[in-house]
Amino acid sequence: MKRFLAILHARNLEFIRDRAALSWGFLFPTALMMGFALLFSNGDQELYKVGILGELNHPFHESRYINFISVKNIEQAITKVERHQLDLLIDPKQLRYWVNSSSPSGYVAEQMLKASGGKTFKENNVSGKEIRYIDWLIPGVLGMNMMFSALFGIGFVIVRYRKNGVLKRLKGTPLTATEFLMAQIVSRLILILFVSTTVYIGCHLILNFSMYGSYISLFLVFTLGSLAMIALGLLVASRLKSDELAAGITNAISIPMMLLSGVWFSLEGSPQWITFISKLLPLTHVVDASRAIMLDGASLIDVSHHIVALIAMMLLFLFLGVKLFRWE
Fold this sequence. Notes:
Elements: H1 2-17, H2 19-39, E1 48-53, E2 66-71, H3 74-82, E3 88-91, E4 96-100, H4 104-115, E5 122-126, H5 133-164, H6 166-171, H7 177-207, H8 215-236, H9 243-260, H10 272-278, H11 282-296, H12 304-324
Parallel strand pairs: 1-2, 1-3, 4-5
Antiparallel strand pairs: 3-4
Helix pairs in contact: 1-7, 2-5, 2-7, 5-7, 5-8, 5-9, 5-11, 7-8, 8-11, 8-12, 11-12
């Protein structure tokens, strides 16, 4: 334990003294969220979203500029209408639809449905607070910042240690590989959670994010997600000794993960192969679980499949990283 605490303390001091990296960890996600909040403050949307329960054989289904999304859970879909995440929800079997009376996009979609002809649907009005784009975006930005901090933070540190001969010298001490790696993991986890919590609280005071779930559940998801991505960074750096190769592999992992994990846009309605690939990425489960907690008020049981996936990925990456790790 003394050896572990010594390495943990040294790693924490190393990062704290690197003021540029520490400042960037706070400024980057904050500036990103502020920028998107400013750009999308008017809430304009170019595409209407209409949820369909089953199959819709109606002239309205041929309308342009509408994204028709197949939904299965009617209660969750109605909640999305209340939150302005769906402009319209149609149940073709029962000949009824739901629209938010305070949604401009919902009003337009409703008028298009009425003007398209065909069967007449019964109207059901719902009401609720609009989910802004920044509310939807915040879980993705925090998850992306965790990903970069985990992959580049722990990965480049270990590669630099190996390249500079630090690991070779540590090998000659009583310190074991497990103690060294656990110290790196715990240090990075403390940093990620501290930065993410500080950024969330600071931006929440300014932008007033929507939060319908439990903060404890959200913190648990962020903790498991951070551990899974730290373990992935450990796996990448387990044998590498070249900064250039480490940067290339890390970018090859982080960029697809950023694009296919629903950070910037929803993957609803995407081809099945894209959805399948996204479920293999830890960032997807972090973003989906945190969005469900923040925007839908989901409990840990509701997001249990995401939690199980993150734990499985963390254990797999950690096992492989420890097995493949080399001091030199």
